[in-house]
Structure to design on (225 residues):
């Protein structure tokens, strides 16, 4: 089924993703989480914000506390008539782990990106657009980090059954033994949903700079598509 999915994606310009992302989508193995995490639309990703200088930067304090419908109106995404939004229970998620999708830890100051693939596992089309809520939980007691959103513009798109799209995380890795945050799990709340998908952090030996209280975090989430 995944090979047919790849062929369909290649034929649709709006759903093109990197070859590494498609490779990861073909090997999805993940667990759905039934816990509610945060407000609809952007999950609970309304934490500290600012500008990181890459991928549009994280938004200012006006990003806090916005529900999904308000965020959708501001994003300018157009609803696809007669097509329901993508529900959490009909989606799967996984980190892209192909060679071209792996984070570059040797980037400037440890800054790099990672891609997360979302697949419509149902047989019906659905529409999706905007920012997912992304919450990290740490290995030391499960401390939660709700990622800020970038200032990138977005538009909604339609996913046919079996098709995939993706979004990126800007990440700031560190090798320091102090001031770090080591994720264990990633919870992803699709736009306008309250239930999350839970996937494992794939880089168990790599830590992030702990910027949970920063006004200009270098770790943040970008929009879908």
């Amino acid at each position: 089924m995944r090979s047919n999915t790849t062929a369909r994606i290649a034929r649709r310009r709006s759903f093109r993703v990197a070859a590494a992302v498609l490779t990861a989508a073909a090997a999805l193995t993940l667990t759905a989480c039934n816990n509610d995490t945060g407000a609809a639309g952007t999950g609970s990703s309304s934490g500290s914000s600012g500008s990181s200088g890459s991928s549009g930067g994280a938004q200012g304090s006006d990003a806090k506390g916005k529900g999904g419908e308000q965020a959708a109106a501001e994003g300018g995404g157009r609803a696809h008539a007669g097509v329901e939004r993508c529900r959490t229970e009909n989606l799967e998620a996984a980190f892209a782990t192909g060679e071209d999708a792996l984070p570059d830890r040797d980037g400037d100051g440890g800054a790099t990106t990672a891609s997360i693939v979302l697949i419509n596992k149902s047989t019906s089309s659905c529409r999706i657009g905007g920012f997912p809520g992304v919450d990290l939980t740490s290995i030391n007691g499960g401390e939660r980090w709700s990622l800020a959103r970038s200032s990138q513009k977005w538009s909604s798109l339609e996913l046919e059954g079996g098709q995939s799209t993706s979004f990126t995380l800007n990440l700031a890795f560190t090798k320091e033994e102090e001031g770090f945050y080591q994720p264990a799990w990633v919870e992803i709340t699709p736009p306008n949903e309250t239930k999350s998908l839970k996937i494992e952090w794939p880089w168990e030996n790599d830590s992030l700079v702990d910027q949970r209280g920063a006004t200009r975090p270098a770790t943040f989430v970008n929009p879908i598509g």
Q: What stands out?
A: The chain has a mean pLDDT of 73. The chain has three helices and 14 strands. The helical segments are 2-11, 19-25, 68-75.
